[in-house]
Amino acid sequence: MERLPTKILPNRAATVREPVIPVVTGILEGYAEKAVFRGFSAHPKRAGKAVYQMIWHHDRPYELLLDVGKKTLQFPQLLPGVPARSPMYRESEEGAAGVGQPTGHGFDNA
User: Fold this and answer.
1) Does any domain span residue 61?
2) What residue ranges of the chain have pLDDT lower than 70?
3) How would you write the chain as a 3-class SS string?
């Protein structure tokens, strides 16, 4: 089954001055503290990758895959049956492209 990437990271390469994994981890920890989801755990990997696990929608386990090199966050269990070139997939990509940079209170869409 093909995984559907959703890009929400900036359209520029991460640098040493931009520790993307700790920033994403901090944002997700903030959501866990606010009880947006439960059972949160972070598993940073080498080469700019991390796996996050949580209990979320309908009390189901989800994984969130971060790949800094590809500038993607993937929820493999979310909408797994949506074909990559379908109209629904294109609409989800367009929606994700409208998400701005993370701020202290969510995402800035300006």
Assistant:
1) yes
2) 1-18, 95-110
3) CCCCCECCCCCCCCCCCCCHHHHHHHHHHHHHHCCCCEEEEEEECCCCEEEEEEECHHHCEEEEEEECCCCEEECCCCCCCCCCCCHHHHHHHHHHHCCCEEECCEEECC
